[in-house]
Specification:
CRISPR-assoc_prot_Cas5_HALMA; 2 helices; mainly beta; three-stranded antiparallel beta sheet; Type I-B CRISPR-associated protein Cas5; CRISPR-assoc_prot_Cas5; 44% strand; antiviral defense; Alpha-Beta Plaits
């Protein structure tokens, strides 16, 4: 299975948690549904009516996410407005303490059943181009995309996983090797699949190591990503 690999970085990221219409809290990694928006921005897919989501119907696209640096969070005060457009003197702005991921660095692994879409994304990544500006969750958090290359995913029974783990694929956590101080956390209610109506059809709990270290675990559906370096990345797609 061919896989495109690229790094997503920036000064800050904010991926609003989905269990509230307004919240200052962020997920530590991008939900899969947010990555669909990122892929669509690179490809220039139609945003009107969320039509781009038709290109990412459930089962057509699989991704894996690896933390390339430890998760760090900052809380900054932001002035929120009740409306869009030009600022009116009668508007009350609400100072709100918001949570941001500080200097995020994610490695994204992408594969898709549509060979034409896959090939177009590969071409744009190779040329360092994007139709729309990539962001890290919200519009003013500009992201930087660095293409790593194209690898090959080979099914494996790895027990040391570099990527985050969807909990449904986790059979058993194993003792970490001597000297590895893991800081595991489970984050719930990730939006995984979404319709153009923005109804979430699949949610998932994600297990990750806050330090970005590999997770010792017995899992289902693990893959080795070969062809990029001597040390193959070990990931789970979802």
């Amino acid at each position: 299975m061919p896989v495109l690999v690229f790094d997503l970085t920036g000064p800050f990221a904010h991926y609003k948690k989905i269990f509230a219409t307004t919240t200052a809290l962020t997920y530590p990694i991008p939900p899969k549904s947010s990555l669909y928006g990122l892929f669509a921005a690179i490809l220039g897919l139609e945003k009107e009516g969320n039509n781009y989501l038709n290109s990412f119907r459930e089962g057509s696209c699989r991704v894996a996410i690896r933390l390339m640096r430890p998760v760090a969070v900052q809380r900054l005060t932001i002035n929120l407005r009740p409306s869009f457009g030009a600022l009116r003197g009668t508007e009350n702005r609400k100072p709100t303490l918001m949570e941001f991921v500080d200097r995020p660095h994610y490695r994204i692994y992408f594969t898709h059943r549509d060979e034409e879409l896959y090939g177009k994304l590969k071409d744009l990544l190779e040329r360092g181009q994007s139709f729309y500006t990539p962001t890290l969750g919200i519009a003013n958090l500009i992201g930087q995309i660095t293409y790593v290359g194209e690898g090959k995913a080979e099914s494996s029974r790895e027990e040391d996983i570099d990527s985050v783990l969807p909990k449904r694929a986790l059979e058993k956590l194993l003792p970490p090797p001597p000297g590895r101080n893991t800081r595991l956390m489970e984050v719930g209610q990730y939006a995984v699949e979404m319709l153009p109506s923005r109804d979430v059809t699949v949610r998932e709990n994600i297990v990750l190591d806050r330090g970005g270290l590999p997770i010792a675990a017995r899992v289902t559906d693990a893959y080795r990503i070969t062809g990029l370096s001597e040390n193959a990345d070990r990931v789970l797609f979802f």
